[in-house]
């Protein structure tokens, strides 16, 4: 008696490339689900000060 066929990959490569193999989409913002709100707030101000060089409207003593 002949052995049974266990696996074949025939036509799978063509089917995968039919619509193109896409890159994984990722966002530049981190996902903060389940993170302590204090850390989220601190991160907001840290990113804000990175953009402004640490200067805000409150520091206008000059």
UniProtKB/TrEMBL annotation:
The keyword Ribonucleoprotein applies. Keywords: Ribonucleoprotein, Ribosomal protein. Residues 1-27 have a biased composition (Basic residues). One of its GO terms (molecular function) is structural constituent of ribosome. The keyword Mitochondrion does not apply. InterPro entries: Ribosomal_eL29 (IPR002673). It holds the Pfam family Ribosomal_L29e. Residues 1-35 are annotated as: Disordered. One of its GO terms (biological process) is cytoplasmic translation. GO terms for cellular component: cytosolic large ribosomal subunit. Belongs to the eukaryotic ribosomal protein eL29 family. This is 60S ribosomal protein L29. It comes from Edhazardia aedis (strain USNM 41457) (Microsporidian parasite).
């Amino acid at each position: 008696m002949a052995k049974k066929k266990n696996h074949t990959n025939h036509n799978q490569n063509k089917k995968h490339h039919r619509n193109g193999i896409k890159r994984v989409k990722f966002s530049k913002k981190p996902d903060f689900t389940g993170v302590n709100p204090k850390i989220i707030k601190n991160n907001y101000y840290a990113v804000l000060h990175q953009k402004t060089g640490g200067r805000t409207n409150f520091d206008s003593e000059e």
